[in-house]
Amino acid sequence: MPDVFTVLRADHDEVKAMLARLADGPRAADGASAEQLAQRQQLLEEVIIEEARHEAAEQQHFWPAMQALGVDGARIAEQALEQEAAADKVLSQLSELSPGDAEFEPLLARFIRDARSHITFEEAHAWPLLGVEITQARAEELGEAVIRAKKMAPTRPHPSIPPQGLAQKAASPVAAVADKVRDTLSGRGRQQ
Question: Does residue 162 belong to any structural domain of this protein?
Answer without folding.
Answer: yes
